[in-house]
Amino acid sequence: MSMSFVFVDGPNNGSCISLLGNNRSTVPVRKMPIVGDTGVFLLTGGYAIAQTHRADFKSATPLLDAML
Q: Which Gene Ontology cellular-component terms appear in the entry (predicted)?
């Protein structure tokens, strides 16, 4: 899975963090590495912890909680 978070307000306005990794929805809590960043996050590292709260598989719409 690849996902980018773009900040459009506040002190991080214009900055971006990108995640890349295996996002198996059957695992309750997942860790995914931060592989790209811009703005105030330039040259940072780390990982995100993702947890699925709810998923509607008919419409393919998940509700995720991610802590960076």
A: apoplast
CB 34 within 8 A of CB 18: yes
Determine whether 17 is exposed, middle or buried from the number of CB atoms within 10 Å of its CB (0-12, 13-18, 19+): buried
The residue ranges of every structural domain in the chain are: 2-67
What's the rounded mean pLDDT across residues 3-28? Answer: 86
Residue in the structure block whose two tokens are 């912890």: 49
Query: Beta strands of the chain (E only): which ranges?
Result: 2-6, 16-20, 29-38, 47-56, 61-67
Rg (C-alpha) for the chain, rounded Å, is 13
Instruction: Indicate whether this model's pTM tops 0.85.
Output: no
